[in-house]
Design brief:
Layout: H1 2-22, H2 29-50, H3 55-78, H4 84-103
Helix pairs in contact: 1-2, 1-3, 3-4
Amino acid sequence: MKWIYLFLAGALEITWAVAMKKSNGFTILIPSIITGVGYIASAVFLALALKQLPLGTAYAMWTGIGIVGTTLLGIILFKEKLSVPQVICVILIVIGIAGLKILQKE
């Protein structure tokens, strides 16, 4: 369950970050509400994962999932552009997330 909680925390981090962008500085109601609810829910699931996972591993994976997800959705939803060095860095983050999962001792 710890990995499911961590994945949900990461997915909700992506959700609140995208909603915050869509809220236009908290001037649009629905995305603003989604931002607040998603932020709290993300923290709750991270806290549940932290009951069983080391802080460094869980936090790095949580933020990494958020970075990769928001980067991809920024490209898809907001037509943001990435340079080649930025793409390489995001790939390194993905490798780091996979490495942390593989090397985590149960």
